[in-house]
Amino acid sequence: MAETWKRTVTTFSDRLFPGLSYPHPYSESDYIYFGNEIISSLPLQMSLYFNVLFFPIWLITVAVMLHVKYDCLSNMYRFIVVTVLVAVIGIECLRLYLGYLGNLTEKIPELAGFWMLSLLLQFPLQIFLFANERTVPQVVERAVQGVMLSLLVVELVSGFIALRRAARHQTKRFHLLQLHMQGSSTPLHHKEE
Model pTM? Predict the structure, then answer.
């Protein structure tokens, strides 16, 4: 099950961001080291930071508003809203974790997971909570939902740019390694003995 899921995510990521995963027969120590070039995205990191700060405010507001309007909702919408909120809370925690990990450590799979969770799950659920009139949205709820949706849109755009940049960087590293391995049998960096 886990291997199938990993293969599906890798296939989808490779189609969307070509060059993300190239199998190579060389060990990690054979890679050419470029120094301390940082490719993390500052706009993505700032939006993630503000999202982490705003998430508890959003959570408290939505929970209080759900308690206030619960009796006004139909039975079907009670179930739907509670289910959507539970899903949004779980996805948001995982999404923010993957975003931080992927951006700060420059790990492409985590960054791709963050971006796909944002686009495929979180964005439609947040739109539902923001725009559906049958959930009887209050003014305060619309305000915090609007801020949350704005942060999500900024994260989608900056996450896409960061992922493309990281994929290009890794692709360049891969091609330089291939060129180096074809040209000589010793790596360019010095190994400590």
Answer: 0.74
Q: Which ranges of 70-138 would DSSP assign to H, the alpha helix?
A: 75-104, 108-116, 123-131
Gap between the Cα atoms of 19 and 160, Å rounded: 15
Answer whether 156's CB lies under 8 Å from 114's CB. no
Could you please report the per-residue DSSP string of 143-171? HHHHHHHHHHHHHHHHHHHHHHHHHHHHH
pLDDT per residue, tens digit, the chain (193 aa), is: 767 877 787 777 776 666 555 554 545 554 445 445 678 899 999 999 999 999 999 999 999 999 999 999 999 999 999 999 999 999 999 999 999 999 998 889 999 999 999 999 999 999 999 999 988 889 999 999 999 999 999 999 999 999 999 888 888 877 777 777 777 655 555 444 4
- Distance between CA 173 and CA 175 in Å, rounded? 6
DSSP, residue by residue, 97-114:
HHHHHHHHTT-HHHHHHH
Q: How far is CA 158 from CA 76, 140, 153, 154, 166, in A?
A: 36, 27, 9, 6, 12
**And the tokens for 96?**
């923010």
